[in-house]
Amino acid sequence: MPVASHGMRIAALLTLALAGTDALAQGNALSAPTGGRSALMGNTGVALSRDGSAPFLNPATIVRINDNSLAFSVNFYTFAATSFTGWHQPGPVDTSQFGNVGLGGTSISTNGFRIFPSTLCLFFTIRGVTAEGSDDGGLHRGRQKLAICFGSTEFVDVVMPALSFRGNTPLGTTAQTQSLARNWNRFQAGPTYSISLGDDFAVGASLHGIYTSESLVLDSSSITSIASGGSVQSSLGTGVSARAFDFAAILGAAYHRGSVTLGASVQVPTVHVYGTYNATLHSEYGLAGTDNATLTSASGSFTAPPPMRFSIGAGAEWKRLVVELDESFQLPVGAIAASVNGSTTTLTGTTATTTPLSAFYSVQEHMAWNTALGAEYFVSKSFSLVGGASTSLTTLPGLSPTMSVGNVVPARMSSASASLGIGSYGAGADILIGAQLGYAWGQSMAVNPYVLPNDWAVVDTRSYSVMLILAGATDLRAIGRAVEKVENAVTSGNPELPPADPGHPREAPKPGTGRELPRSGASDPRNETDPDTGQPAPKKAPGAPDGGSPPQNTQPLPSSPIDPQNRAFPPR
Question: Is pLDDT above 50 for 513?
């Protein structure tokens, strides 16, 4: 079946990711994997990307995407185990009220599989289809490609409901109930364009709308024995719902010479469009027969601009080995901030008062430098080993607990990862299978129930994860062959007929020719048998005058192996 030999050829890449990334938080740009091969090669791709990561890492590299590629799919399945040190006693104790509280077993942990949102990219070849078997990496003069992408580049989802703790204190007992739900998502969508200005140089640009969302619920209640006798009940909780929308541009370039490709990209400062912030805060405790409570609600604007990102990469492709090294520098140009107005209602005893609230909360990010290294070794044309390692250091400073409405930054994490997998190429389909091991460390906000009123505190966090990566690709020719086999099966009953010559279309079989006619009897040559064995007599070989075996010197000469896709090696 011929496939789009003239005009615009359309290629589509579909990346479906399922992962759990509760190891990270805000301040980790591009922490969500966007391509299977990129993730297995240590999250590289500034120079040699050819999957769904290309529009986000370096728009110029989309010219490397194969013209015949119709569909790529990738799944990320992650099992993560995360611990929070001293969660149930996270800060200093007010000894005048609670005595010398020194609880054991106050750390908590959570583990399980997580689900990651989807990423979708559609690629279109506008001009300059790459010749099959070409080794120019898609960089030849005049080649142009366009992509439309939708995907999450940062994602955090931590849910720990119904936490409970009971223990003994020097003055009696303590009991706690807590719940935590924290979500952070940065979603990008927009077009990417790339053009090869020469046979060795390409430039590209992505214009993305960026939608950032944050939600937080952290709530704690406790009953603890106190020095004056009896017990005190106290609680502290907050809730946040924030949204922001920005426009960002990513500019990139790629230079290819021989076996080496150099890449560079920059994400310029974003243009803020709008942001909303809604938050609540409550705090209560009763002491000496007097109730004390505070309820605060506020709303206003919210900003969370991604930092500027400068990235450079160098990749080399030899006959059996592909290597890439990337470096990225993140330079924050703004702060995660909220400007709010609202009101606070305070209860003391039985008297309530309401006062207006106007506040500005801001967390200024700092610079961060990250490294990624990956390699792919081809054991043969159709089989490879893939691996890499990378870092994702946060741009957020150390957490500082303050009594604010919402806590605009409730966590910070940094991470390092290493990956290893295998690749299979051929017969119109590519498959990548592997795993990525991750370790993350950082801080998280918690509630200190052993001061009155309760206050925020900071605990250390650690996380270990294993991500299973399953990625695959097919192309238009493979789909064309599948369609042709279906057509052959329907029209002739034989799906394995040889391909038809476009200049001489295969005639449809005449009615009845696909069935064997009834045998006429002993005179029918199909009924001949060997008189010695009683078995059907062997048919005479063509070209053998005596009905015996054909001459033995007619064996064909051996031929060299043929790549069914006629691709360059290593595959591109």
Answer: no
